[in-house]
Amino acid sequence: MDIGSNIRAIRKRKGITIAEICDITGLSQGFLSQVETNKTSPSIATLENIATALEVPLAYLLLKKEERMRIVRKEERYVTTSGAEENMRVEHLSSSKNMRMMIVEVPPGASTGEAHAHEGEEVHVVIKGRIYAEQGEVSAELREGDSFSWNACTPHFVKNIGNEPALVLISVYTETENRGTLL
Q1: Is the pTM of this model over 0.85?
Q2: Which H/E stretch holds residue 61?
Q3: Average of pLDDT values for 63-69?
C-alpha cells in the first residue's frame, strides 16, 4: 500500500505545505516527510489526523490507485460487439472490480441468440426503442424508460422488436472479475 504517496499527492494538489500539515496535526516535519516517502508507517490515529488536516475521509488515504475514481471519456470508451451475429455494438462505460456498465445498441431484429446463462446480476434500462426480454417463464416487452433486472445464472434472451435501433444501459455485478460482454 502506498499511503505516503497518496498523502503527498493530495497535499500538493490542495497546495498545502508540509509545515501547514504539521501545524494542524502537531507532527514533526521530519516524521511527515518519512510518512510521505513510505519510510515509516503511521498509526491509524496519526492517519486520521492527517486526513482531517487534508480534509479527506480516512478511508480515501487507504484506497489503492485502482480503487479510486476512474474517468472514461466518451471518445475513450472501449467498444466491442455481441449477440447472435455479433451485430450489437457494446460501449463499455466504466467498471470497478466486480461491476461494469455498458450501453448496447441493438439493431432492429437483432438478439442475443439462444437463451444463455452466466455468472452475475444484471440491471437494464431501455434508453431508446422496444426490447423483448425473456427469462425462464417470464417475458416482457419493454419501451423507453422501462427497466428490468435478473440473476444471469438463469437462461435469458433479449431481442429488439422495434423498427429502429434500441439502446440499453446495462449494469452488471459479478463475484469474480469478469470483463466479458453481457445482455
Answers
A1: no
A2: helix 58-62
A3: 82
